[in-house]
Amino acid sequence: MSDRAEEIRKSYGMELLEEEHTYLCEVYRSPLLTPEGLPALTTIYGLYCPGSYSRFHRLSREEVWSFYEGDPIRLTLLYPDGTAREVVLGPDRDAAYQFTIPAGVWQGGCLDGEGSYALYGCTVAPGFTPDCYTGADPEELIARYPQMETAIRRLT
C-alpha cells in the first residue's frame, strides 16, 4: 500500500471488507427515513489499492459512484438485459468523475491498470442496508455474460 493510501485508510478508519475485498468506511447515514423506515441515503468512502477490488454484487437501490483522488478506476457493469459496459472514473480527460449505477445491475470495480490507489465514494438512495445487497456467483454470471468471463473471474 502506498504511503498516501495508508494515510487515507488511517485517516478515515477504513477496514478491509472481505465481502467486497476493498477498504471501506461509512461516512454518512441520513437521520431522515423513508416511509418504509429506511435511511434516505447513505455514503461510504472506498479505497482501492493493488490487489483490492469490489467483488461482483448488485444492489436493489441506485448507487452513485464518485471519484475523489488517485488513479483511475474501472467499473464493470452487467445489465439485466444481458448487455455489459465498462466505465472509467478518474482524473484522466476521457474519464468521468461520477456515474450512477441503476438498481439491479451487477457491478464490480478495481484500479484501472497499474495504479497505486484510488479514493472513491458511493452514495446509495434509499440508504444501504444489508438486505439490498446480493453477492454474485461467478459461474452463474459467466453463463449469463460469457463475453465478460475475464472481468468476472478477476472481480470474484
Describe this structure in words.
- Helix content is 15%, strand content 43%.
- With 156 residues, the chain is mainly beta.
- The chain has a single domain (3-154), classed as Jelly Rolls, CATH 2.60.120.
- A 6-stranded antiparallel sheet has the order 1-2-3-10-5-8, with helices on one face.
- The two termini are 21 Å apart.
- Give me the CATH architecture, please: Sandwich
The CATH fourth-level homologous superfamily: Jelly Rolls
How many domains in all?
1
Helix content: 10-25%
Shape: globular
Number of helices: 3
The order of strands across the largest sheet is: 1-2-3-10-5-8
**Poorly predicted ranges (pLDDT <50, ≥5 residues)?**
none
Estimated structural class: mainly beta
Order of helices and strands: HEEEEEEEEEEEHH
Topology:
Blueprint: H1 3-12, E1 15-17, E2 22-29, E3 42-48, E4 53-59, E5 62-70, E6 73-78, E7 84-89, E8 98-101, E9 106-111, E10 118-125, E11 133-135, H2 138-144, H3 149-154
Antiparallel strand pairs: 1-2, 2-3, 3-10, 4-9, 4-11, 5-8, 5-10, 6-7, 6-9
Could you write a compact summary of the structure shown?
With 156 residues, the protein is mainly β. It has helices at residues 3-12, 138-144, 149-154; strands spanning 15-17, 22-29, 42-48, 53-59, 62-70, 73-78, 84-89, 98-101, 106-111, 118-125, 133-135. It has 3 helices and 11 strands; from the N terminus they run H-E-E-E-E-E-E-E-E-E-E-E-H-H.
Features:
mainly beta, Jelly Rolls, six-stranded antiparallel sheet, 3 helices, 11 strands, globular
